[in-house]
Amino acid sequence: MIKLNRKEMKKIIIPIFAAAVLLGAGCKKEFFDINTSPNSPTEASVTPQVLLPRTLHNVGLRVGTGFDYAADWTGYWSRSGSYGQSIELESYNITSTTLTAQWTNWYDILTDVNLMEKKAQASGLPFYQGVAKTMKAVGFMYLVDQYNNVPYSKAFDFVGNITPGYDKGEDIYADLFVQLDAAGKLFASVTTMDAATQASDVMFKGNLTLWRKFVNTMRLKLLIHESQVVSSATVTAVVAQITADGSGYLGAGQSALVNPGYVQVDTKQNPFYNTYKLSALGVKDTYNRANNYILKKYFGPDGHADNAVTPGTDDDLRYKAVFSVVDTKLAAFPSATYDYVGTNFGEVVPNSDPFRAVNQSDVAGPGLAKSPTQSQPVLTSVESLFLQAEAAQRGWITGTPQTLLTSAVRESFTYLGVSGGAGAADAYLALGIPIVDYTGAANKVNFIVMQKYLALIGLANFEAYVDYRRLGVPTDLPLSLNANRINNVIPLRLQYPQSEFNFNAANVAAQGTINPQTSAIFWDK
């Protein structure tokens, strides 16, 4: 049985974008629920100012807590030994009933985004238009990167086209560049910002420069995702747009973080903290655990945690930030070596195994789960610097790749609060072991992406899944140990949800026979 996290359990029924989801109604009361009673705002009365904080919070919720499966498949996390198998996820046997919330929840958000854009355009509110276009690019990027072709151009024509056709993934990407260019220009056109608008912007507080940097970083992210297929003409055109904007990218200390006022109250805590650390009701996540694969990468060539025997000899100390010390130390294993214990994805652990549940490290270490009121990342400065490093290595943008890479690793250590911060990062990069030897790397793009992989755990789990599909990095990523896997490998995509086969049959059939094992996203070559 698939183990669903608390967000996935929230049932949202969207049969072909039914009008019922126009304002994102759900069964569970959360921030900004605006469809919970007959007295709640309707489409006719709701304003962009009301929609904006709800939209940003929900994007942060999805980015921060919606991609457990990607963390499992890419060697970040795995199932606790005290839980039964998640057969479909661990066997990679993806069906039309697997992970359907990826479809419904993103379209739920994008319905709000579409309404916000229409309202803003009608009212002459360029800031809200710019935000809507930007978040449209974010949401549809995630949909394309999971499903390839999806409804886009006619997705929200509820009256005229209740069964929308599918647009090609590459065509959607091309239009997202258009949307982002328009968004940047809309932000540049804003000359004043009232206090109410600043308050509704729970990500950048009305800081137009940061919004423009976010737009530019998103443009670069889309280019990087399609790096294996993108034309030089597209790269030149998009980079020229970024250069013309003049704001640059998100840099050190400039993360896109959402915080509508998280408090230590049920359903109102920071989503990541609430899901993977401790809910306001005192419920701990006992399912998600550290994966031995990435733990070994952090431990270095000796394969051991930093301890009295090998004090700091070759360790990447970020493991102490992204994972927690086990809740219960076993008397038979008192050494500090067993402070951090992981599991293997898909492995069925026998009852006799001493390391189970509380004897394994959770995935919400102190660098990720800092407090129940912390801001929720949408796109961090860490990821932005790694995107820039890869783009520079490919010759797309100016800058020295190794310098940008060093800045990205330093930002990772600093963001996670690793003891020593940037100095600890410099010490790590000076270890002289292959995983930090940029000069000796035969494939420097892959080298940068491997360092990116080590840095984004818990911050951008889905990005690791994108990078693995487009480049095969990490190159030694192990497959699931589940006996039901047989010949399956890590899926290339998700299957369309059953609701599409039920209610939009002709259009989903037009996509051909989809096999998640062999049907690739357009950029996956």
Question: Which short descriptors sum up this protein?
Answer:
two-stranded antiparallel ribbon; 19 helices; disordered N terminus
Commentary on this structure:
The protein is an all-alpha fold and 525 residues long. It has 19 helices and 4 strands. The protein has helices at 48-65, 68-73, 87-91, 101-123, 126-147, 169-189, 195-200, 208-225, 232-245, 271-276, 292-299, 319-322, 381-393, 401-416, 421-429, 444-455, 461-471, 498-503, 505-509, and strands at residues 77-79, 256-258, 288-290, 376-379. The strands form 2 sheets. A two-stranded antiparallel sheet has the order 1-3. A two-stranded antiparallel ribbon has the order 2-4.
In short:
With 525 residues, this protein is an all-alpha fold. It contains 19 helices and 4 strands.
Assembly context of the chains? single chain
User: For the CA atoms, what is the radius of gyration?
Assistant: 22 Å
Largest pleated sheet:
2 strands, antiparallel
**Considering DSSP H and I runs of 4 or more, what fraction of the residues is helical?**
40-55%
What percentage of the residues does DSSP assign to strands (E)? under 5%
The total of beta strands comes to 4
What is the CA-CA span between the terminal residues? 32 Å
Write out the strand line-up for the largest beta sheet, numbering strands in chain order. Answer: 1-3
What is the average per-residue confidence, as pLDDT, rounded to a whole number? 90
Q: How many DSSP H or I helices?
A: 19
Structural class: mainly alpha
Report the order of strands and helices: HHEHHHHHHHEHEHHEHHHHHHH
Q: Which word captures the global form?
A: globular
Low-confidence stretches: 1-29
